[in-house]
Amino acid sequence: MAKVSKKRAAANAKIEKDKLYSIDEAMKLIGEVNTTKFDASVDLHIRLGIDPRKADQALRGTVSLPHGTGKSKKVLVFCTPDKEQEAKDAGADYVGLDEMIQKVSGGWTDVDVIVAMPSVMAKIGRLGRILGPRGLMPNPKTGTVTPNVGAAVADVKKGKISFRVDKNGIIHSPVGRVSFEPNKLVDNANELLGTLVRMKPSTAKGIYMKSVTVASTMSPGIPIDPKTIK
User: Fold this and answer.
1) The pTM is what?
2) What is the mean pLDDT of residues 63-81?
3) Residue ranges in the chain assigned as alpha helix (H)
4) How many CB atoms are located within 10 Å of the residue 95 CB?
5) Rg of the chain, C-alpha, whole Å
6) 3 state SS for 63-81
7) Cα distance between the two ends of the chain
8) What is the pLDDT of residues 76-86, one digit of tens each?
9) CA 204, CA 214: separation in Å to the nearest integer?
10) Which of 1, 18, 90, 107 is deepest in the core (most CB within 10 A)?
């Protein structure tokens, strides 16, 4: 069994065993149990009562966090030359088509989000084997396949994130950094959780939100009482 560091043991001791915290309590505690020296990401881990193998229960979507994630996202836009300036003006980090396709084909994927115009999707389809496993393939459901590339880039830069349920029925998503004020983490978490509640599949049976845990990078998780979610 791996030895627990003094710092981690002290953090673990601050979390009451078997207690379900309110969302407000949890976000106040997250800074106290953080064990890193850097501004760690704060992530929600939400176990849903769904079967991701069923098409209508394989949840994926987007949400605009009111206070962003605290991380500047690098955006690549695949577009025709007439749209390049629009993408750049909106804050895109990389813009282009053929030369960018060639770059990605060579294995380069140093971006967080990729936006593409519908008219170029046929060209970038062959990149699926590289982008798919990394969750970077543009998709109409997440608003990353659109003729309005400028608006899509602006949304991402302002805090729009995408999420998808994994094979175990769990959604993992950032909601900020440990440097955020607790109320901002609460706002972001409620925005994400409220979106998931609205997306509940009509075919899902039993308890929908089975468990919610918040944790910062390399720190212990804090269980949240789903009843405290607004």
Assistant:
1) 0.78
2) 92
3) 6-13, 23-29, 84-89, 98-105, 121-124, 128-131, 149-158, 182-198
4) 22
5) 19
6) EECCCCCCCCCCEEEECCH
7) 39
8) 999 999 999 99
9) 24
10) 90
